[in-house]
Amino acid sequence: AQKVTQAQTEISVVEKEDVTLDCVYETRDTTYYLFWYKQPPSGELVFLIRRNSFDEQNEISGRYSWNFQKSTSSFNFTITASQVVDSAVYFCALSELTSGTYKYIFGTGTRLKVLA
Amino acid sequence: SAVISQKPSRDICQRGTSLTIQCQVDSQVTMMFWYRQQPGQSLTLIATANQGSEATYESGFVIDKFPISRPNLTFSTLTVSNMSPEDSSIYLCSVRTSGGAFSEQYFGPGTRLTVT
């Protein structure tokens, strides 16, 4: 069975600190996709990044960076110089082919609180 | 990308009644999904809404409780039937613009349902 684990339920940091959100996944498939979403207090999920299982290059987008390591089945997300606006729940998700349809399996989310 | 609207945004309902949630997308999309997010929890897939045919339900969800319609490629409804307080959740519509694994999903703003 596929599974996505976000062991950190809640993290609090002070503004300008760096913070890493962990995501560990389980899958038997060789082809799969991983995603990160942000859910701010307003409730709407915002797509942040997609990574396929064949691309282990790390990615940086502004203050955000992602570290994908197949050897440890991890897809961690780092926010550099955090800001109060980064406060949200962050979900990691795995997309796998199930009964002919690609479906997302979401982790339980990590609530990030950035304090001013 | 896709812009998704949901109606109502929130509602308070009495147990035993039913509520129909509407999801409208600004463009034709391949896949439409309905998720439930219970308070403080992750997202759970209820079903895949299939255009012109019956929805495909995940384990633990049944058509009698959560009937779904999808009359065209831009619209879907989810009905929560015979509600109980345990149905209090946020219900999210989600779409994918293509059926491939690489395609990210976009989420509506959600419908916050409280059952008393």
What key attributes describe this structure?
heterodimer, A: 116 residues, mainly beta, 0% helix, globular, B: 116 residues, seven-stranded mixed β-sheet, four-stranded antiparallel β-sheet
Number of strands of chain A: 12
Model regions low in confidence, pLDDT < 50 over at least 5 residues of chain B? none
Mean pLDDT of chain B: 92
The largest interface is:
A-B, 25 and 25 residues
User: Percent range for helical residues of chain B?
Assistant: under 10%
| Poorly predicted spans of chain A | none
Average the pLDDT over all residues of chain A and give the rounded result. 91
- Report the sheet with the most strands of chain B, covering strand number, pairing sense and barrel closure: 7 strands, mixed
Gyration radius of chain B, rounded: 13 Å
**Percent of residues in beta strands of chain B:** over 45%
Q: What's the total helix number of chain A?
A: 0
The N- to C-terminal Cα distance of chain A equals 41 Å
Description:
The complex is a heterodimer of chains A (116) and B (116). Chain A contains no helices and 12 strands. Chain A has strands spanning 3-5, 10-14, 19-21, 24-26, 33-39, 46-52, 59-61, 64-69, 74-79, 88-98, 101-106, 110-115. In chain A, the strands form 3 sheets. In chain A, strands 2, 5, 6, 10, 11 and 12 form a 6-stranded mixed beta sheet that branches. The N and C termini of chain A lie far apart (41 Å). By secondary structure, chain B is mostly beta strands. In chain B, strands 2, 4, 5, 6, 9, 10 and 11 form a 7-stranded mixed beta sheet that branches. Chain B has a 4-stranded antiparallel beta sheet with strand order 1-3-8-7, with no helix packed on it. Chain B is globular. The relative contact order of chain B is 0.34.
